Amino acid sequence: GAGVSQSPSNKVTEKGKDVELRCDPISGHTALYWYRQSLGQGLEFLIYFQGNSAPDKSGLPSDRFSAERTGGSVSTLTIQRTQQEDSAVYLCASGFLRDEQFFGPGTRLTVL
Amino acid sequence: SQQGEEDPQALSIQEGENATMNCSYKTSINNLQWYRQNSGRGLVHLILIRSNEREKHSGRLRVTLDTSKKSSSLLITASRAADTASYFCATGRMDSSYKLIFGSGTRLLVRP
Fold first, then answer.
1. Which residues pair with residue A44 across a beta bridge?
2. Closest CA of chain B from A35, distance in Å
3. Which residues of A touch B44 (CB under 8 A)?
4. Which of A34, A57, B10, B11 has the maximal Cβ count within 10 Å?
5. Mean pLDDT throughout B71-81?
6. What is the chain B residue with the closest CA to A57?
7. B45 to chain A nearest CA, in Å?
8. Span A54-69, mean pLDDT?
9. Cα–Cα distances in angstroms (integers) from residue B24 to residues A84, B27, B91, in the given order
């Protein structure tokens, strides 16, 4: 079946612009996660959605970052007024609570 | 902050040899997972071991967990060039095990 998909695969933007990153999780998965990975580093947790519960936003690095999940499916991560330090690969994963996570291919964001 | 720390950071072996990677963590966990990442993009789940398990096998993979030492090891037997990748351990904490905390990874190179 179809895996997790993310779009765009690459995004180059200018400092100060807003960007939106999209994640389509595997159908039926109740949990959706966003992570950020800087070059050569591990994954940094950003935000977690589970069903209709309030999301866990504890990993968002600043108020410029926000995310929503519409209809319990597709999620959008928005970064406002992008900074160069926001450059990274943004990974989305879906799954079931306390189980393995299935990752998308990621969006590589470059802020010039 | 990182929960899991892998050791070594990089490993180079000959095809056919075994590869062992270690992971240490700091807090009580619900489970520990190992993931593989090729070319800095999406991660692939390899194996999950729960806190009440000590050893688990999957094909050429063997994972051990020592909760008293807060450590885990991943053994890849009879390595192949296709095993070349970065390997990450990720821990699900007892208090919020949906939030996986990733280490910085081990870069494995298998020379043909």
1. A36
2. 10
3. 103
4. A34
5. 97
6. B99
7. 7
8. 93
9. 32, 10, 10
Q: Compare CB distances from B97 to A56, A98, A106 and report the shortest one's residue.
A: A98
Confidence category of residue A100, pLDDT binned at 50, 70, 90: confident
Spatial separation of the C-alpha atoms in residues A84 and A29, rounded to whole Å: 33
B interface test, pick of A58, A60, A98 with most B CB neighbours within 10 Å: A98
Q: Give the three-class secondary structure for B64.
A: strand
A71: how many CB neighbours lie within 10 A of its CB? 5
d(CA B15, CA B98): 36
Search chain B and give the residue with CA nearest A42: B104
Chain B residues whose CB is inside 8 A of the A44 CB are 102
Chain A residues in contact with B92 (beta carbon < 8 A): 98
pLDDT class for B40, splitting at 50, 70, 90?
low
More confident residue, B39 or B49: B49
CA distance B94 to B63: 20
H or E element: which one contains B22?
strand B19-24
- Which residues are CB-contacts of A62 (< 8 A; sequence separation ≥ 6)? none
Q: Which chain A residues contact residue B43 at CB under 8 A?
A: 43, 91, 93, 103
Complete edge-to-edge strand list for the sheet that includes strand A75-79? A5-7, A19-24, A75-79, A65-69
Residue-level pLDDT at A46: 95
